[in-house]
Design brief:
This protein is an all-alpha fold. The chain has a single domain, classed as MFS general substrate transporter like domains (Growth Hormone, Chain: A). The protein has 22 helices and no strands. The N terminus is likely disordered.
């Protein structure tokens, strides 16, 4: 294995514009899946307040919200399993086949949430069914990052991987923006009783037609040229996870995939998933105001991640990641203070500044992780490490933060969590090797 991984890298030839026509179609196919995955996942957070009433009725509203975020967090601990299984498949049979399976699983499980009966109708079986469907979502989400982002990085061509993979990060922002605007629209036009009776179902049901479109587009994509070449040359391994864990160098790189994305994980769930509920329940903004602040953050972040990815191809991944993380450490508390002033305008300013710091990390993170591993074990090694960190520091973040606020009475808990994880991520970024200017490992 060492001889293979140390072989002289080759540079794949591309057309003058550095983007073969087939590659463009394949990149779109990769982006569609990422878009749908993040939309499906984000919808849950955006209607969490309503789901708390529908599936976890309680005389104590805080208890209902905590139970709702517990249902949000549990599937994230299935993500490493999804990464291990789907990542191994991706390294053995190809990225494209696995991505077709994952988008089907994710879309169907999300749409089925929209058909579930409420607690009032089915009793305890309603939240049980919700959690079971969330398990399926967790498995699919676990397999998506390693396969999807490796697929994009391997199609990108030299010198533009940051730019191409940042398209996927922008797609996640657009997906969350769509979910936010949909939730905001429903909140604005429906009464609370209508929202709880049937309105909450609509964002979940939208996953079905989105999934059909995504499946069609992904079927049109080409297999990753890196994997196709590895298969042709007989470099595909039958046990990619075992091979990854057998190498000390790879185990160390997998450890990096757990720690390096700390800001990516905490920022995503604190700023975009938990923020609407936090602004409504703790800061006493209206539900619509909380959603609108989130929508503005996402709109700004969409352009920021594209710029960050493109810039990282010029200045390097390491500089982008460390600068973004340490900037968040500096501005985290002042920006959070703006959120607590009770003004929509100042809350928006603070949220947008934090969103820009997050975008500097988010726009570069996935390509950095893909560049750490060789083709033969890339999807499984990248996926397992990344999803372990996401489960621990991201999926559990809303539950942890909501629980600590309830226990301490301090509304500064989200800022403390965000700043601490940013500091650790910044230190980790300083310790990685620069990979932006090298070919992908074989």
């Amino acid at each position: 294995m060492n001889k293979v991984s140390q072989a002289p890298p080759r540079v794949r030839r591309v057309s003058p514009d550095n983007t073969p026509k087939a590659t463009k179609a394949s990149i779109i196919g990769g982006l569609v899946g990422v878009f749908i995955e993040l939309y499906d996942n984000a919808v849950y957070g955006f209607v969490a307040g309503t789901l708390a009433v529908v599936f976890f009725p309680s005389d104590a509203p805080t208890t209902s919200v905590l139970l709702t975020f517990l249902a949000f967090a549990i599937p994230f601990f299935f993500r490493p399993l999804g990464a291990a299984v789907a990542g191994s498949w991706g390294d053995r049979i190809g990225r494209k086949r696995v991505l077709l399976v994952l988008i089907t699983m994710m879309s169907l499980s999300t749409a089925l949430v929209g058909f579930l009966p409420s607690y009032a109708v089915a009793g305890v079986w309603a939240p049980i069914a919700l959690v079971l469907l969330r398990f399926i979502q967790g498995f699919a989400m676990g397999g998506e990052p390693g396969n999807g982002n490796s697929f994009l990085a391997e199609h990108a061509g030299e010198g533009r991987r940051g730019r191409v993979v940042s398209y996927a990060n922008a797609a996640t922002f657009i997906a969350m923006l769509l979910g936010t605007l949909f939730a905001a629209l429903l909140t604005a036009v429906l009464s609370s009783s209508s929202m709880e009776a049937w309105g909450w179902r609509l964002p979940f049901l939208l996953a079905l037609p989105l999934g059909v479109v995504g499946l069609i587009i992904r079927r049109m994509a080409d297999e990753s040229p890196e994997f196709a070449e590895a298969e042709e040359e007989g470099r595909v391994t039958g046990s990619p996870l075992r091979e990854a864990l057998a190498s000390r160098e790879t185990r160390r790189a997998m450890g990096t995939t757990i720690v390096l994305p700390l800001l990516n994980s905490s920022g995503y769930f604190i700023l975009f998933i938990y923020m609407p509920s936090f602004m409504k329940d703790e800061m006493h903004f209206s539900a619509l105001e909380g959603l609108l602040v989130t929508a503005i953050m996402l709109a700004v972040g969409t352009f920021a991640v594209l710029y960050a990815g493109r810039l990282s191809d010029r200045v390097g991944r390491k500089r982008m990641l460390s600068t973004s993380a340490f900037t968040m450490v500096v501005i985290g508390f002042p920006c959070y203070w703006l959120l607590t002033r009770g003004s929509f305008a100042t809350a928006t300013v603070g949220a947008v500044l934090m969103s820009l710091c997050f975008a500097g990390t988010n726009g570069v993170m996935q390509v950095t992780l893909a560049e750490l591993f060789p083709t033969r074990i890339r999807t499984v090694a990248y996926g397992v490490g990344y999803n372990l960190g996401t489960a621990i520091f991201g999926g559990a973040a809303p539950l942890l933060v909501a629980g600590l606020i309830a226990a301490t009475g301090s509304t500064w808990i989200p800022a403390i969590y965000l700043v601490l994880t940013s500091a650790v991520a910044g230190v980790a970024a300083l310790r990685i090797r620069e990979t932006a200017f090298e070919p992908l490992k074989r």
